[in-house]
Design a protein that fits this description.
Length: about 170
């Protein structure tokens, strides 16, 4: 396993629409292992492949608390089959938009069909933080970031600050 560099705004690669995965094989599992290690190291609770520069429909997540046992989750080719009409608001952050947070409204519950680490089809019935997180990560597969839901004024301000911080630390 290896930690991979995480792409941050304003890198235009984050706007790429990711391609479906043909087959869950050892090469894909190696990518998922790297993504999980990268996510834990950051630390974060979710990571899409595009954030490490791989435009494939792959997501890793772990929303377990810091004092709880790790609970890694893997999503390959996820599709939202159902989303509730009722909405929930979370203060979201993103490893590609470091140090910035904003309240984003999304469906409170959703059902997500996907393949798991072994390539077996699964249906996730999510609510709470899990529902928000999987929708945030699935947005990445379409090239969408949580800051895209904000006003352009607010979004541009955040992108500028991240770009500036990057230059200082690089
Ligand atoms: Zn994100």
């Amino acid at each position: 396993m290896a930690i991979r560099p995480i792409i941050t705004v304003p890198d235009p690669f984050l706007k790429t629409v990711s391609e479906p995965v043909g087959k869950v094989d050892d090469a894909l599992r190696a990518l998922m292992d790297d993504m999980l290690e990268t996510m834990y190291d950051a630390p974060g609770i979710g990571l899409a492949a595009i954030q490490v520069g791989v435009p494939r429909r792959v997501i890793v997540m772990d929303i377990a608390g810091q004092d709880d046992e790790p609970e890694p989750r893997y999503f390959v080719n996820p599709v939202i089959e159902w989303a509730s009409e009722d909405l929930a608001v979370y203060n979201e952050g993103c490893l590609s938009v470091p140090e910035h947070y904003a309240e984003i409204e999304r469906p409170a519950r959703c059902h997500v069909r996907h393949l798991d680490y072994d390539g077996t089809e699964q249906l996730l019935e999510a609510d709470g933080l899990l529902a928000t997180c999987i929708q945030h990560e699935m947005d990445h597969l379409e090239g969408i970031l949580f800051i895209d839901y904000l006003s352009s004024l607010k979004r541009n301000m955040i992108v500028k600050k991240v770009a500036k911080a990057d230059r200082v630390s690089a």
